[in-house]
């Protein structure tokens, strides 16, 4: 039941598919499969990326088995691809192996920054959309590129907060706000989250969801951090829906002085 202090039922909808959780998890960097499993459960995630170049779908005891066991949706990731051609091929292999047309499209420019290559990314997005994929591109925090990806038919746009694995948080909140204002598809803040307050900020800025991996998988206590991220995403979303007060340059007394004179106080 909805009350004044609970948000209305508020599922994330991507390409017509509903998710109760707005936290998308990545799987890279965990010290063991068991630790990863505990963290995924603590996060409450319903959708988790798997790098296709680092997983063998036929291997027993793989992360895919963990996801399957807990009914968590798989989002194949083209991580490690440097060209449009590589990414398209990887997505097609993933569709074949995992039976899903959904893909996290990652086409990176170099190994030092792991930043997206905008030219190759847009080309790959256009080709994959034309081939029937549901494309969720990892993109720069560039409002123009985000719009071009949406126009290309992507089901969401996923701007970075900061480079993958950097934990630097959201370096350009202004651009994230611009992307959110202009987007007609869900905006998922992807990469660079360092701690729970970064995830909350992403949601307060109006993002529809957060995708993160390193902050959890390389935390000293991954499951505890995963739980913190879950709460942060929920809190940030609630704050966004509640409508924050405007920022003021000068003080404004929180209680009015009107009426005090009448009582003689
Ligand atoms: C798991 C995944 O998809 C990553 O490539 C993603 O971009 C997350 O980045 P962080 O590891 O910085 O959270």
TrEMBL record:
Pathway, per UniProt?
Cofactor biosynthesis; thiamine diphosphate biosynthesis
Q: Which PANTHER family does the record associate with it?
A: THIAZOLE SYNTHASE
Does this entry carry the keyword DNA-binding? Answer: no
- EC class: transferase
Which residue range or ranges hold the Thiazole synthase ThiG domain? 14-256
The record describes the protein's role as: Catalyzes the rearrangement of 1-deoxy-D-xylulose 5-phosphate (DXP) to produce the thiazole phosphate moiety of thiamine. Sulfur is provided by the thiocarboxylate moiety of the carrier protein ThiS. In vitro, sulfur can be provided by H(2)S.
Q: Which family does it belong to?
A: Belongs to the ThiG family.
Gene3D superfamilies from the UniProt entry: Aldolase class I (3.20.20.70)
- InterPro entries referenced in this protein's UniProt entry, alphabetically: Aldolase_TIM, Thiazole_synthase_ThiG, ThiG
Source organism = Actinocorallia libanotica
- Amino acids binding 1-deoxy-D-xylulose 5-phosphate: 165, 191-192, 213-214
Q: What is this protein called?
A: Thiazole synthase
């Amino acid at each position: 039941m909805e009350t004044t202090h609970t948000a209305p039922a508020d599922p994330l909808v991507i390409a017509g598919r509903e998710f109760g959780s707005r936290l998308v998890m990545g799987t890279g960097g965990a010290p063991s499969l068991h630790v990863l499993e505990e963290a995924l459960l603590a996060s409450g995630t319903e959708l988790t990326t798997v790098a296709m170049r680092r997983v063998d779908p036929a291997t027993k005891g793989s992360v895919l088995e963990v996801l399957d066991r807990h009914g968590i949706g798989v989002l194949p990731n083209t991580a490690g691809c440097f060209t449009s051609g590589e990414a398209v091929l990887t997505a097609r292999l993933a569709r074949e192996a995992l039976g899903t047309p959904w893909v996290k499209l990652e086409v990176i420019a170099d190994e030092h920054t792991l930043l997206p290559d905008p030219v190759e990314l847009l080309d790959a997005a256009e080709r994959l959309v034309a081939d029937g994929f549901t494309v969720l591109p990892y993109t720069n925090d560039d409002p123009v590129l985000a719009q071009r990806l949406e126009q290309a038919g992507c089901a969401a746009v996923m701007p970075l907060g900061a480079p993958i694995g950097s934990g630097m948080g959201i370096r350009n909140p202004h651009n994230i706000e611009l992307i959110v204002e202009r987007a007609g598809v869900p905006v998922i803040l992807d990469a660079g989250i360092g701690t729970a307050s970064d995830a909350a900020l992403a949601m307060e800025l109006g993002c529809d969801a957060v995708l993160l991996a390193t902050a959890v998988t390389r935390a000293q206590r991954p499951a505890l951090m995963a739980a913190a991220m879950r709460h942060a995403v929920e809190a940030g979303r609630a704050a966004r829906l509640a409508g924050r007060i405007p920022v003021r340059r000068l003080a404004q007394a929180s209680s009015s002085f009107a009426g005090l004179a009448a009582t003689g106080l």
